């Protein structure tokens, strides 16, 4: 599992780690039932506090991405890929709502916003 922490990111370190683990699960790089590094091992690898990695694992577990078994470790949760994908869709909806609200306050109409999205999609496909 490769996690990169950016010192210039606006996101807190725990959020960067959490997002990258969630993305790896959604992309299938971390498979259902796969064991994650221990909280201490991950903290040592990333050179962050154990409290930071504990928070990451606690939040991932509360969101249904991982399960933790006492004395055995933390594992990618099984059979909830649909839940995970729904979570990702919700994140996109929240971001689109933010973009829509920003566009409205700037006087950008629906057609212009759609045109901007078309450009973004075209650039993303290149």
From TrEMBL:
PROSITE patterns: HTH_GNTR (PS50949). Keywords: DNA-binding, Transcription, Transcription regulation. Residues 11-79 form the HTH gntR-type domain. Pfam families: GntR (PF00392). The keyword Transcription applies. PANTHER family: GNTR-FAMILY TRANSCRIPTIONAL REGULATOR, HTH-TYPE TRANSCRIPTIONAL REPRESSOR YTRA. This is GntR family transcriptional regulator. It comes from Brevibacillus ruminantium.
């Amino acid at each position: 599992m490769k996690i990169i922490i950016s010192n210039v990111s606006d996101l807190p370190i725990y959020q960067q780690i959490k997002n990258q683990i969630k993305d790896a699960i959604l992309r299938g790089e971390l498979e259902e039932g796969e064991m994650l590094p221990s909280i201490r091992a991950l903290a040592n690898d990333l050179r962050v506090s154990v409290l930071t990695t504990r928070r990451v694992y606690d939040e991932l577990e509360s969101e249904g991405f991982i399960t933790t078994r006492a004395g055995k470790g933390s594992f990618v949760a099984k059979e909830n890929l649909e839940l995970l994908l729904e979570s990702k869709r919700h994140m996109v909806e929240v971001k689109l709502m933010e973009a829509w609200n920003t566009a409205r306050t700037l006087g950008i109409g629906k057609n212009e916003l759609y045109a901007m999205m078309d450009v973004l999609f075209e650039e993303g496909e290149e």
